[in-house]
Design goal:
Layout: H1 2-11, H2 14-21, E1 26-28, E2 39-43, H3 48-64, E3 67-75, H4 81-89, H5 95-102, H6 105-120, E4 125-132, H7 138-148, E5 153-158, H8 163-169, H9 172-179, E6 183-188
Parallel strand pairs: 2-3, 2-5, 3-4, 5-6
Antiparallel strand pairs: 1-6
Length: about 190
């Protein structure tokens, strides 16, 4: 029993191992709403996996004629302290302005480009932000986001952390699979 628990802790269950091993998108069905989703929650990633996930969202959105909620957690733990304090004091700024202030201009532009591409497909798009002020894990913030939204399906990219980095930092997509009661469409980086 102890050996099994340790193996699952380090290797994960069948679903988590499949997410790591298979380089194609995976649908993890946890309820009947995944058959015909009306509202998809996208945990936005602004790296390369985000661009690939966006293409899948266009396909899903058009197929099911659903709305897309773009959720993004502004992770402050890697930022210089003064920049964080300045951003958090600026309560009159929009979250897009916060993106611009905390990160580079290109992230704000990329986020808006993602939104515009979805709208160009005729999809209704809602944008929601959270600022991680307390140093919580991004995965926990996303889970809270998803629970608050009334989505039928969660779409998230899996960036492919491996080895010690995955053990230490964890995997947001794997944590979503383990902790959420919602169906997930996990998009893998094809590279």
């Amino acid at each position: 029993k102890v050996e099994t628990n340790l193996r699952e802790y380090f290797l994960g269950g069948t679903t988590e191992r499949a997410i790591r091993a298979i380089n194609i998108p995976i649908l993890v069905v946890k309820d009947h709403k995944a058959k015909n989703p009306k509202n998809i929650f996208w945990g936005v990633e602004l790296g390369d996996i985000g661009k690939y996930t966006l293409e899948w969202l266009k396909i899903l959105g058009k197929r099911f004629h659903c709305s897309i909620t773009m959720g993004y957690v502004i992770d402050t733990k890697h930022l210089k302290e003064e920049k964080v304090k300045e951003a958090l004091r600026a309560t009159d700024l929009s979250h897009l302005d916060l993106l611009d202030m905390i990160y580079e201009e290109e992230k704000k532009d990329l986020f808006l480009d993602y939104r515009d591409q979805l709208k160009k497909e005729g999809l209704e798009v809602v944008i929601k932000f959270k600022v991680d002020q307390g140093g919580k894990q991004v995965a926990k913030q996303l889970q809270q986001f998803i629970i608050e939204s009334s989505c039928d399906l969660v779409v998230i990219g899996a960036g492919g952390k491996r080895g010690l980095k995955r053990i230490i930092q964890g995997s947001v997509s794997e944590e979503m699979v383990l902790k959420l009661d919602k169906s997930l469409f996990v998009v893998k980086d094809p590279n």
